[in-house]
Amino acid sequence: MGQPKKILVPLDGSSNAQRALDKAITFAKPFGAKIAGISVIYHVPVTGIHNVKAMRATWVKQARKILAKAKKHCAQRGVDFSEKIATGYAGDEIVNYAMKSNCGLIVMGSRGLSGPKAAILGSVSSHVLHKARMPVVIVK
After folding, report:
1. Which of 8, 9, 53, 86 lies 20 to 30 A from 108 at CA?
2. Are the C-beta atoms of 134 and 98 separated by less than 8 Å?
3. What's the confidence (pLDDT) of residue 57?
4. Which phi and psi angles does 8 have, rounded to 5°?
5. Coil, strand or helix: which one is 136?
6. What's the CA gap between 67 and 87, in Å, rounded?
7. pLDDT tens-digit series, residues 75-115
8. Whether CATH 3.40.50.2300 fits 6-139
9. Burial label, 101 (beta-carbon count in 10 A; 0-12, 13-18, 19+)
10. What is the average pLDDT score of the chain?
């Protein structure tokens, strides 16, 4: 695996994401690596939804809260943390951000809050596992 300088952790508030963050911290500390947390807000098509702005504001507020909690958690363990809120399909956004920000490793939960969409892995973790060009650790 080498020595990653930056580890990406997708965060959605689920217990699997929290376990992934804890695992990323254990990887980051010996290497002095930074953790980048990303929270992805699903892009809602405007048609058929009356209060899109209010929904988006609520989701952004939730994402900020999740990322703030993760930042505090990392700080208490002596690991630098940066944050990103993205909008779109989570799998694509995670892979694209990992590439753009030169992450050497992605550590993520096997399933998030979206529920069991695939038999073994969640659809987002499966997408990231197959599309990412850097190592991916899936945490259960």
Report:
1. 53
2. yes
3. 87
4. -90, 130
5. strand
6. 15
7. 999 999 999 999 999 999 999 999 999 999 999 999 765 54
8. no
9. middle
10. 89
